[in-house]
Amino acid sequence: MKIYQLFVVSILLMAISCTLDKTDYESEINTAVPEHYEFKEATAINKDQYKISIETLNGTFYQGYNEIRVKITNTQTNENINASNITFLPIMTNADGSKTSCPYQYALDYKPEGKYYSGYSVFTDKSNSTLSWKLYMSFNVKEVTYTVNKDIAVNEQSNKNLNMTSFTGNDGGQYYIALIAPQKPKVAENKLVAGIYKYNKPTIPAGNFPDPSQFSYSVVNGYTLQLDPRMPEPSMGNHSSPNNQDLIHGDDGLYHGIVNYTMTGNWTLNFIMLNQNGKIVKGTKVSTDFTPGVPGTKSELFIDTLF
């Protein structure tokens, strides 16, 4: 009888803890993690009579995935310019002077409906006193090639639903996974979107800086990202949720799946990444046991979220 009473008391304490956690997390998400759907100018570069305006969501470069929109105008006529061969290359300089990059789209695509050029950049680190970012771009107008560059600031991503991770796979490759959607999940089945990218080691000697062949990344094609979302907090007992769907490669180059959040709070997206042949590139299975009072064990490949 005493054992039964202790069991009931422990369940009640867990329920109270869950309720308190849920209230706190709802308060945080409603005040600290707004959704951004408006593109604003993040920086601009002037070259001769042309202005190159680079737009991002909220007009800010964030650590993680950023959709990039570029507009080029003639400052004398204020007309949009139909340029060609628009290139985009972000370079990070470390304290020791070494230079690296991040996953990005080098050749931008023209979107006639919006009269802009579209691409992306997955900034791997935020700017600080020992690390800086610079954009290198080029474009052609009337058979003349223009090259420009501009220092930018990359800010910390405060929305944990847009976190990213980088890792070395079992095949020796350097990979990057960046969450793209949802920005603000609901207690429901949410469409989960992520980008997966791989660093391409240079195969030829470097040319004149900045040589894009030395900073090359590619979209990973045809992989599968197996998903096991869990609440790792001791008060949550490592519980998961039903009806989740693994992320698979879509026609847009991104990976799409379903994550079912059954309550607000801390969630860990545990992954196992499989290549086209079903071989594990990274990730481990996690325990399915309900473990109240004990932190949940995470996969070796995971991304934490909070909503």
Using brief descriptors, characterize the structure shown.
307 residues; mainly beta; Immunoglobulin-like; 2 domains; ten-stranded antiparallel beta sheet; six-stranded antiparallel beta sheet; 1 helix; 10% helix; globular; YtkA-like domain-containing protein
Describe, in plain words, how this protein is organized in 3D.
With 307 residues, the protein is mostly beta strands. The chain folds into two domains: 114 residues, Immunoglobulin-like (Sandwich); 147 residues, Immunoglobulin-like. It has one helix and 22 strands. The strands form four sheets. Strands 13, 14, 15, 16, 17, 18, 19, 20, 21 and 22 form a ten-stranded antiparallel β-sheet that branches. Strands 1, 2, 4, 5, 8 and 9 form a six-stranded antiparallel β-sheet that branches. A hairpin with a 5-residue loop joins strand 6 and strand 7. The two termini are 39 Å apart. The N terminus is likely disordered. It comes from Chryseobacterium pennae. This is YtkA-like domain-containing protein.
